[in-house]
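User: Hi! I'm working on a homework problem where we have to compare a predicted structure to a textbook description. Could you give me the structure for the chain below?
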Amino acid sequence: MPNTQIRSVKSTEGVNRPKRSLRSRINRWGLSLLAVLVLGILVFLLVPSPIKPAKWSAPTAPSFEEAGPWKQNNKLSSAQLVTDAPQFPEFITFDKEGQLYTGDSDGKIYKVPFDAEGNPQKAQMFADTKGTPNGLKFDAKGDLTVTDVKRGLLSINPSGSIKVLADQVDGQPIYLANELDIAKDGSIYFSDTSNYGSVTFKEIAENKPHGRLLKYDPKTKQTTVLLEGLYFANGVALSADEDFVLVAESYHYQLTRYWLKGPKKGTSDIFVDNLAGFPDNITRDDQGHFWVGIFTTRISFVDQMHSNPWLASTMAKLPESLLSGASAPAKHGLAMELSPQGELIGSWHDPEGKLYGVTTAVSYNGYLYIGTAPGGSKGVHRVLLTK
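Assistant: Happy to help. Predicted structure tokens:
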């Protein structure tokens, strides 16, 4: 009996010893991992930020729930697919025959004809810029003028031959040619979005103006700077009388007006501000009204970051691949209509998120045509222009 008890104790000790040893090793590993994590956080916090953010208290975003022109509806929810040949049709324009033209992010520009009943036919490739064509507009001669993010200001003749009109201004490169409009005298007004040369979350976090509004004179073939210090210069549109030109400042939720005629010529002011999202392209309809695509509704984290430079500078240290999700478009399609005086007439929504990442809204022949950019839904869509 005593011997049996002793053997029992020894047996128990033999079983418990490995368990305690395993537990000790797990604890040591856990402490080591914690130490590495803490050290990594300390190093991350001590590494200098690539930016020095400017503090900005963004205005409170308009509500979609309250009565008024921003009130949510489903006007875009019934959108019809026109073509899915271009994945991301940034901008949309029409030629004199009523054929639709749009570019894709891979450099290709497509032409979409319509039958006698107005039904879209199969898309045809018109040209390939080997860049990223954003803005498109036909000039008086019938050539397609293009602002290409990678190549600058281009002209494409009806046979698809491409010529570079401008890729420099004042001895500097045109960093990111984005959108354009053409005056009756042939002058081309276009945006140079940012001297960052690409769309990056760091620029949002920095909250400093790096964009410009440019003008190309086809007679002298010279490009000049009209405005600089813009917060992500984007869409461009002339007024019906061409007494001013608008440029969207996406990162400050506003449209800026630059006066071309009258007592204010050569000066600028705010046309409309505190928009419900990031304004992208601007088009003008036959009534002189402006249509604006809203790429994404307001992102509360971004607004909070603007008021906290430490948070902004810390976020800018993260790899861009991790930050892209923070600025991805909300799955809420949105476009707006403005009067020639800047009054918000109404907004068009798709709260279901089937159509989102809206860059362009073009009123043409009884329809509102919608374009999008990478991050949003795919293909050209349209909805009937019923109010």
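For your comparison, note the following. The CA atoms of residues 367 and 385 lie 5 Å apart. Residues 1-14 have pLDDT under 50 and may be disordered. Good luck with the assignment!
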